[in-house]
TrEMBL record, chain B:
Location(s) in or outside the cell: Cell membrane
Biological processes per GO annotation: transmembrane transport
Cited Pfam families: BPD_transp_1 (PF00528)
Membrane-spanning parts: 22-48, 94-116, 125-149, 176-198, 276-298
Protein name: ABC putrescine transporter, inner membrane subunit
Organism annotation: Mameliella alba
One GO CC annotation: plasma membrane
Domain ABC transmembrane type-1, residue spans: 90-297
Entry-linked SUPFAM superfamilies: MetI-like
Family annotation (InterPro entries): MetI-like, MetI-like_sf
Homology family: Belongs to the binding-protein-dependent transport system permease family. CysTW subfamily.
Membrane topology of the entry: Multi-pass membrane protein
Keywords in alphabetical order: Cell membrane, Membrane, Transmembrane, Transmembrane helix, Transport
RNA-binding among keywords: no
Amino acid sequence: MAKGKYDLRVYPGFRAITLLCLVILYSPLIVVMVYSFNASPSITNWEGLSLRWYADVFTGPESAKFKSAARNSFVIALIAATVATTIATLSATAILRGGKFRLRTLSFGLISLPLMVPEIVTAVATLIFFNAIGFDRGLLTILLAHIAFCIPFAYLPISARMQGIEATYEQAAMDLYATRRQAFTRVLLPLMAPGIVSGFILAFIVSLDDFIITNFVKGAGVETLPTAIFGAVKQGIKPNIMAISTMLLGVSVVMVTLSWLISRKDRKT
Amino acid sequence: MAGGAATGGSSTSDTYAEARTWLLLPAWVTLGILVLAPVAIMLVYSFLTKEFRGGVIWEFSLGAYDQFFCNRGLFGDEPCSIEWTYIQIFWRSIWQAGAATLLSLAIGFPTAYFIATRPPRQRTLWVFLVTIPYWVNLLIRTVSMKFLLRDEGPLNDFLTGTGLLSEPLAIVNTNFAVQLGLFYSYLPFMVLPIYAAVERYNFALSEAASDLYAPRWTVLRRILLPSVKPGIVAGCILVFVPSLGSFLAPDLLGGARNFMIGSLIEEQFKGNAGNWPFGAAASMILLTMVLIILLIFARQQAKAEG
């Protein structure tokens, strides 16, 4: 292929727009990260580097609130991601390894439903549902709602991975007298591991990040990190909020990077 | 995550056909109870009578839809004439989501194209760079955007400090701020499908057109764009649909004058003066709009694939 000016693939300006795109995507996050290390209590003036707002998050007057919110967030994300990943793995096995059957397309549609229904509608519907059956709002209602919308996020990487594994492996195992259950647990599941880990990580992040649905189904006084941050931001953006945001941002970026590295390593083998 | 296609061969089988009912049962039970049943009950609630401090009275009523579409005057006893308040909020939401989609397309298409024409080894890294911010908490991203754009914020400091502008730009609390927030929320949804489409595109077609003396931009318009159109349409839908019902971007960046559907619905449930049937009705109308859009899209995809 010809290079430079005569390369038909190159359109002038596209590289610049891509760079602009990255600047728009990253500059707000970087600015907040930088300002979280600002010594000044004002969010406008810069007074030098300091970790005081991080200390404030852990020991300051609001630290108890943030700690309980963080605990809620992580416990819910852990349980919701585990349950959603299990359900997604079983469903993917049925949909991709269960032959052709009438409910196949419909099942896939049901699993992707939480991605298609607008989040605010899911939030309203779930709130009304818990109200109608007389279920008190609290941590459990948040957990149940999170399990539901985490399923499609766990399903996507898992089914992508399973599509890449040929059925002959399990068939070979079964020819050698493995039971169906053994073929599943000893052959398919180990091969699926990278997809399952990616799915779990994505579900975990999605649960950790959710604000809208949580805000509707949480009980009074129960907070997760996003709802606590939202409540605080309504009073104005404070430096300690920027410190929390930076930490939460760090957790998400590390986990996504892990998920990406796992799937990339997996592709090379 | 991806990488299935490379191994080829049949990836589906009937190894676990006997167990499929049991394997699917957890998903059906969970999603049936936590998604399908709630939507059904929401439909029922939209036809009930409102209770004044939130909640409903179990009595059939068309009040919610009547309030949405009908203006019955100050005392509520006049015949129905069209009520524009809520239709206007929906219209503004459609307009904002549309503008955000165009903005995402204008920046997302060149980005996706640029990434898809990198050497194959670099592409995943570029895709990764574009998607990372998506996985950062939406609330944090929106707050960060507000922090950056606000009148005394770093962007305005920079613009006035360097003398580029004498007055700070008032961006926050404008329509544009909301569009920028929505763009920031959903950009990867635009980039990824277009990227996938351009990656599959056969550049021999461009060369053929060029050999027949088509200028570069004509090749783009007449050959490339029609070929990758399914990716563009998918990207537009994936940005438009979540933008339509978004809550955080209009709430934090838009202020009171730029009220969208999401805030209208939220107000019915989170405030004290909530009107649950009305909120349920507004949610049903939004859901119906979204499902119609998705249905038309699915029809066209099916037609395109033949």
